[in-house]
Amino acid sequence: MPGDDALVALAGGVDPSAVQEAAHAAASALVHGARSAQDAEVTRRVVRLAQEEGLEVIASLWADAPADSLAGALWRLYVLRTWVQRSPVSVARQYAEGRRHTPVLEVLAGVADPPGPEEVVAVVDDVLTGVAEGDFAVTLERAAAFCRIVAVGRAHHADEPRHAGPEDAAAALTRSAARLLRTAEQLEAVAHRWRTGELG
Q1: Which of 3, 30, 74, 169 can pair with 163 through a Cys bridge, CB separation 3.0 to 4.6 Å?
Q2: CB count, 10 Å around CB of 130?
Q3: First-last CA distance in the chain
Q4: Nearest CA to 45 among 124, 129, 118?
Q5: Is residue 5 a contact partner of residue 47, using CB atoms and an 8 Å limit?
């Protein structure tokens, strides 16, 4: 997944509390506003925001938001979408491997069978559409399940002999799988907070 280089630093001299407040307001408007609107164009704008405006624009508001916040969850969903769109073949391969070991999560994630590149891109777009028109907690849980499945697949790929070598590709895959699991945990935590009414 995109790492530190995907995060864009905010310009100096900005009050961090003001930035956090703006991030929360924008996230809340996207989730609550889009959920209450019946206009299909609103849904399309929410789903395509990163593609049309650039991930950097979103990062300037949400990248530094706490992981257990609405803004932090939306940031993770957009990064997930961007990552899958940039690497659909490798993600599909890792998902296919991971689902063999996590059949229950596969049902929740909802990727079509067989899970090729187009299918994994479609499911992430579908998850992001859920921000605007579905149950937000379920949206987060589907994204978390997807992350967990890919993480399992990535960890299994790390054990393949072809990843052994001086660049230690296996270790890099293992670390990346751990980061994906952490992302899944964070999304699940926000889903729980949403259900209990802790997120405004």
Answers
A1: 169
A2: 23
A3: 28
A4: 129
A5: no
